[in-house]
Hints:
Blueprint: H1 8-19, H2 41-50, H3 70-82, H4 86-99, H5 109-118, H6 128-144, H7 149-167, H8 177-197, H9 206-218, H10 222-235, H11 240-250, H12 260-271, H13 276-285, H14 293-299, H15 304-318, H16 322-334, H17 338-346, H18 353-356, H19 359-369
Helix pairs in contact: 2-10, 3-5, 6-7, 7-8, 7-9, 8-9, 9-10, 9-11, 11-13, 12-13, 13-15, 15-16, 16-17
Amino acid sequence: MTYQNHNKSLTTVSLIGLLCLTSVAAACGHSQAAPAPAATDAVMTAIRDYGRGHGGLLSPGSDAKPDEDYDAYKERITALLAKEDFAQLEKMGQQNRTKKGRLLGGAWKTYAFYDGMTSPGAAGEQNRTGFEQQIARVKKWVAAYPNSATAHVALAQLYLNYAAFVRGTGVADTVSDSQWDVLNDRTAQAKATLLEASKLPEKDPGWYTAMQDIAMYEGWDKPRMRELFDQATAFEPDYYHYYRQYANYLLPQWYGEPGDVQAFAEEVARRVPDPNGSMLYFQIVSTLSCYCQEGIQALVQTSYPKLRLGYSNITQFFGASNLTANRFAFMATTFRDQASAREAFAAISSIEPEIWGSEQVFDSAKQWANLQ
Length: 372
């Protein structure tokens, strides 16, 4: 994934000059976990066996364009779980697997489905009590439907989200021993739940995303992490969430080296025909959309024409979403494409803080995009 304009440093400086009304952090924070047990042979065997007999590419034009927003769908799922309407959740989980439904911006309904039930409370409002109550609720679901792949994956992902919440987002040496203990304990519970689910007749793409989280938390080595990714994409080649999670693993603040994400995006774009290849390229590279010096320097080492094509294909097949519009607005601003940035900002309903860092930066970029 090579940016065609070789004036990398000038591009980075011009973006910082445009947006930096306040000081910029020197680098993105490092979030690596403490050492944990490596993947066991039993886990790797389950990973290899889980998807046998499954797999098939979903053509992006095979269904009608989505008309439901990610957050709205997620809220529906949250409400159903709060009412303990397990029968309806079972029905929706099954439909998501068979119909491979999408939401505006291309997110898979399966992914939003688990997001809606495994993060109790809005960001900033979560607490341990909320997670424990949600775990108890999902355990009731598992008890009522012991052969449900959906319920088991939901429970595993809930354990993992609880683990991440307790660990926090600080660098490794700021995390206490008690926090590490909770992370390791909940990760072990999630792994046991997924191994149990691997024996069920129904298979769900969320099983692999949960296993990718386990691999991140435990710090698996690159060969095993890559094998997990390859098995996941053999199971469901177009499930772009697998690609984004693997790209996150490759970030320097986790387990990768500078240039790993760019090389991975290029590999995928060469291997997967368009329109899927460019859309996957966009989704992979958008993991670099972060208003920090490391993120900007990495982003400008990518192919902007491929990013622009990927965003265009996503909106053509799946419509625009607030999240994808924020991501592309950041990219277009970084590459000084004023016309495309203006169009992307027009599709944004609210700022995504993890991309822009602050409203001041966002407003400055939007103002530049709309200059005549």
